[in-house]
Amino acid sequence: RHCTDVICCVIFIVVILGYIALGIVAWVHGDPRKVIYPTDSYGQFCGQKDTPNENKTILFYFNILKCASPVVLINLQCPTTQLCVSKCPDRFATYIDVQASYRYKPDQWNYFRQFCKPGFNNPRKSVAQVVRDEDCPSMIVPSRPFLKRCFPDFSTKNGVLTVANQTTFKDGRGKTRNVTDLREAANGINNVLDARSVGMKIFEDYAISWYWILIGLFIAMIVSLLFLVLLRFTAGVLFWIFIFGVIGIIGYGIWHCYWEYDHLKGIPGSDLTVYDIGFQTDFRVYLQLRQTWLAFMVILCIVEVIIILMLIFLRNRIRIAIALLKEGSRAIGYIMSTLFYPVVTFILIAICISYWAVTAVFLATSGEPVYKVMANQTLCKYANLTCDPETFNTTNVTKLCPGAQCTFAFYGGESLYHKYIFIFQLANAFVFLWLVNFAIALGQCTLAGAFASYYWASRKPADIPLWPLFSSFGRAIRYHTGSLAFGALILAVVQLIRVILEYLDHKLKGTQNSFTRFLLCCLKCCFWCLEKFLKFINRNAYIMIAIYGKNFCTSAKDAFFLLMRNVVRVAVLDKVTDFLLFLGKILVAGGVGVLAFFFFTQRIPLFAQEAPTLNYYWVPLLTVIIGSYLVAHGFFSVYAMCVDTLFLCFCEDLERNDGSTAKPYFMSASLHRILGKKELSPKKA
Questions:
Q1: Residue 316 half-sphere exposure toward CB, CA atoms < 13 A
Q2: Three-class DSSP category at 4
Q3: DSSP 8-state secondary structure symbol assigned to residue 269
Q4: Could you give the CA distance from residue 448 to residue 427 in angstroms, rounded to a whole number?
Q5: Membrane spanning segments where (predicted)?
Q6: What is the CB-side half-sphere exposure of residue 113 using CA atoms within 13 A?
Q7: Full-prediction pTM beyond 0.90?
């Protein structure tokens, strides 16, 4: 063996070093506190340690009625002063009422002014001036924190929306308003807050039942292993039971259609044609026609004949596919360590996802605070323009646009780095896709090398290398990093194009015309098909790389033409394998799920006392079912790779050897028997 695709290997290493450099630059310029902490109108973090806002962890909005929706609030684009506070208001109050009573009720003013700008302590200032300068809110309403922001404390009483059991409130400007006026400003918040209690109950269920969930997943792992081991004995039985079951069901369908056809004979109106009655919204009308049942019967007869003919003409290839499945089970039995290799792939992908997510957050939070003019008047020409909060009050903006504020908008900058943040995010996504595909490719090549060493062993298992999985992993890293990176690069480019198309489709959804929608749909469909095709080619190319050690392009070409020369065998093996593995996943997930259902609902007398008392028994139940399916998928993906590798080795064996003493076959005795003497006879020169 020698190193393959060296240039791509060098590029891959350089890109990884550049990716690390991008992460370092992002970490230097970014600040995740901008995501963790809400930011007030002055660009200061709420709740940040060693700052005046250390004990003020919640963001308060002076006039929440100016905010159109919670999305606006969360994005910090609400045109009102935003202030860090230690707690949300717990009562109704207006500046007018507090101003009128501050002389003999100073406690009310002391409570109210904690929601005013820091340092403001002038209750004698007129309401008009306070509202204009936004020194204090004109009103406060009972609120509770959500996403570290104060939202009205909505509740429903007898079907009526209330805030603190009141349906009206004073807006601080001499008007009494209904609490429904707050609905638009905080639309949907009440439902989300109610969902928090459900979330807490789900968390409690997980806290009580987590070890039982782990036990269920362990049982799923054992059942998956047993299923794979038993496939060498049951693969043929399961497949033929399914096939004859399908034939029997279709046969019953044919008989039922004939019975309905004969039963409708002589009934008035049953001899009409579909064309005579035209289109009907009630499809039961068509079931009263003999022609409908005749059509069903003809279609089912055609399907039945096709299946029977396929079984007759493809019987030998089906037997080969079943034999390969059994051989795959035998190979895994000799190399059990391969079943746990998906854990390595999972760890590598988890590292890639974590690095990408952290880098994306740091890139998104890079930059300095940007302030913009937030004006109440829609015709203000200064609206949404950048401003400086230090000098804003000295400009004429407040005169031309009364009530305008210079408030924090987002984080950004004008430097070269900040101008290319989007490009950096795109590069971050692209390298992430490249690394994930490389991790998958490394796993496929490693498993293929291990199983190929099993197939090409003259005496099984005596001639199998001592540590086939580790040896294959070492070969893949040492010699074929460039080839694996090349295949992963091609796939990453296509996936990035698909991501961009999805992004464009999302952004242009409201404005695109019919032709644009059609074009985008066609492009998305084409690139989806291309991605599926490339995954198929790459998978088989990695198998050829593991067997022969050639470069990616040569291996892909050899694998493609080898598969095309055996296209019928490929189709049969693919469908037989897909069916049996799908059946295995359903059996594992369904069996463990049924067991979990009886356990968590305390219907197993032996374990009734051990079963935990839950708020929602379906929480651990769904977790066990989904987890069992994923566990089975992990084990069966190794099995599928094993079968694909053995199949390519089998095809190569048939083409390169003739069964003679000089060129003996490496296939197992069961495959020898299926092929028969004709195919096993020496080839003529």
A1: 9
A2: coil
A3: T
A4: 31
A5: 7-28, 210-230, 237-255, 293-314, 334-358, 431-456, 477-501, 579-600, 621-641
A6: 16
A7: no
